[in-house]
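Data deposition worksheet. Section B asks for the primary sequence of the deposited chain exactly as it was used as input, without tags or linkers unless they were present during the calculation. Section C holds the resulting structure in token form. Section D is free text for depositor observations; keep each observation to a single sentence. Incomplete worksheets are returned to the depositor.
Section A, Depositor: J.P.
Section B:
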Amino acid sequence: MNISDLQGKRVAALLSGGVDSSVAVHLLAEAGIKPDLWYIQIGPDRDQTDFTCTIEEDLEMARAVAHKYGLPLQTIDLHNDYWERVVDYTIDRVGRGLTPNPDVMCNRLIKFGVFDERVGHDYDVIATGHYATTEFDSEGRTWLCTSPDPVKDQTDFLAQLETWQLEKACFPIGHLPKSEVRAIAEREHLSAAHRKDSQGICFLGKINYNDYIRKYLGEKPGPVIDEATGKTIGQHRGLWFHTIGQRKGLGFGGGPWYVIRKDMEQNILYVANGFDTAEQYSDSFTSAAFHALTVNPFTEAGKEYPITLKIRHTPEFTAATVIRQPDGSLAFHTERPLQGVAPGQFVVLYDKQHHRCYGSAEITSSSKTPA
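Section C:
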């Protein structure tokens, strides 16, 4: 939904205190739209009240934007909901050796989920500062489409939305490159104009990721084995501290070493030695059933469909083919091998022009590219 479609509609704008949502509010106000502003409050621990996600600074920035445009700002505490629906999901997946994406689930379950359950149902539109666009097809269906800024494009973070959530969403800055968003913020003297983009997982705040995982999953030492030689080169403290494709932080001499797989039953971490080794790459993998944003274009079992895809948040799209299996799962073959394909990741599917986003699916297994 574009700003031009919002006249006469009840609009809620999610304001984080960052430059992107601040400019989104500016563009709405400039178009004569007067949204209600909402700040979603979450925190690092279900029992912790001293939030470390820069909440006071965020709120100060958000209040400045609300004051500038004379708009009401309200806060909604979704702390416990975030823990129960996103953090528990993350800890559970990590503990099972998977590679989850809490940002994807936050958008589906919190920003467009619990928020709508609590207050969003009173609005026709929920506007956010995401870098994404939408368009209608000839049948009036809403499609999620990419931003012209490939570095900032966030369609991959939105690819688990339900159809009704996408139909209700508006992304006012989605058609702009980040440089122009910054320029607008400076020109309009917005308080967040020079604020750095947030990095990492918000609920952690300033907490070290491994320390956080250790708090809830503990340690479980086991051998680290060189896949090529079968030799044990050291010990890990728990498979959940490592991700497929990881290079930094392994601490073994004679590297570089890359994590290539995890044996959860035997508690073994397998690594490969050297730069750009074949063991790091996969060109074939499978996923669970497909989650469609608008309609499922992969309806015929056994048929090969040309697509482009992403398995992580990068500017690049990879050409691939996908085949629907009889049980509804998907099998992928990529034009070029991908580094660090891991179970639990979301593969995000696009058309051949990587314009429309079809949806996403959770990766279940991968095959290594032959040397």
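Section D:
DSSP finds seven helices and 18 strands in the chain.
The chain has a mean pLDDT of 91.
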